[in-house]
Amino acid sequence: xxxxxxxxxxxxxxxxxxxxxxxxxxxxxxxxxxxxxxxxxxxxxxxxxxxxxxxxxxxxxxxxxxxxxxxxxxxxxxxxxxxxxxxxxxxxxxxxxxxxxxxxxxxxxxxxxxxxxxxxxxxxxxxxxxxxxxxxxxxxxxxxxxxxxxxxxxxxxxxxxxxxxxxxxxxxxxxxxxxxxxxxxxxxxxxxxxxxxxxxxxxxxxxxxxxxxxxxxxxxxxxxxxxxxxxxxxxxxxxxxxxxxxxxxxxxxxxxxxxxxxxxxxxxxxxxxxxxxxxxxxxxxx
Length: 286
What we know:
Blueprint: E1 8-17, E2 20-29, E3 32-38, E4 41-48, H1 53-63, E5 73-78, E6 89-94, H2 101-111, H3 118-127, H4 141-153, H5 156-161, E7 165-171, E8 176-182, H6 185-198, E9 207-211, H7 217-225, E10 230-233, H8 239-248, E11 251-257, E12 260-265
Parallel strand pairs: 3-6, 9-10, 10-11
Antiparallel strand pairs: 1-2, 3-4, 5-6, 7-8, 7-9, 11-12
Helix pairs in contact: 1-6, 6-7, 7-8
């Protein structure tokens, strides 16, 4: 299994093992900047693994609240440099939006700084008016336990490099729908969201999203924007991610490994009848 073109690069390395030395060509995950422009105005630059760049740009616009539907994208294209070098710029034309490049650039700058508190971050998400995920969706615990192995078997670039995050979408039976890889876990989720947007599958109200690594605040926010009811990760969530999931009704699962997982919010979606907690998720002490 091989990853998308440009996602993997080869380099000469030196390996030391038990006193012996050898030299060989090793595969490493590619990392390049992607600039997203709206009507010629630079919006953001993200470090990403090349591949599915159009999905990444579309998903970013959706999960950051710049657009709410595919109809608001008038045009989406990769700009081709005149010198014939690699294209690392996506140009977007929007319609029917109140887009203000200056305000958005300031917001992205603030969000990446250490001066934004958790309360302000959650308030900003609340103001966007995101809908609570489908309360009727359920997934069997046995199905959840099978998902990590399925994801690992489909990580084409990771199998070559060992250096990428992944996000995968599953239905309630555990059937893999789509998987995307990237050097940044948030980019992998944006690629999933962008795929769903372009395929007219939003909201993803009957699916489980599994991410490698931890489930942070940004991942929860992006899952909510896509309408996903269950977000699972193989590692721990952050405190702010748990608070946001509880407030907006997302089922958040961590430490999904083997036959064990921990539910941090809205356990009713992935426990058998009679096992759900009697205490509302937003009533837990953090």
